[in-house]
Amino acid sequence: MAKTNPFFDVDVSKFTDVSKLMSEFKLPGVDVESAFAAQQKNIQALTAANQLAFEGFQAVARRQSEILRQAIEQTTSIVSELLAAGSPEEKVAKQADLVKAAFEKALANTRELAELVTKSNTEAADVINKRVSESLEELKSVVAKAKAAK
């Protein structure tokens, strides 16, 4: 007996493989292998959904960085334009045009980022929704098999 727990006189090596442990418990009408396979598929689906969500987060962060870089470049350009020679009326008109363009660009950027987030969330949710549907079909199949066995 491999005693790996110093506090209890129990062989815990057989507990490391959960499927092996569960196979020792013979529950009538329960297919342990199928249950583990289903749980493994659930974990794989969650992992895939998390990966998609993380990739979406990265895409949003990259785009935000790009937007910030563009904004800094535009601000530098705007300041240069406003400091250029011209009458006060021309500067006010130019400033109004620049503010309008900046506002429209900010709205477009916000819309684009929202679409990126929505796309990412939808892709991740689709993976989970697909797995839930598959799980329900698997459950239906197990119930049908149990009913047929009676």
From TrEMBL:
Ranges where the Phasin domain occurs: 36-132
One Pfam family it belongs to: Phasin_2
Classification via InterPro entries: Phasin, Phasin_subfam-1
Domain of life: Bacteria
Name by which UniProt lists this protein: Phasin family protein
Lineage summary: Bacteria, Pseudomonadati, Pseudomonadota, Alphaproteobacteria, Rhodospirillales
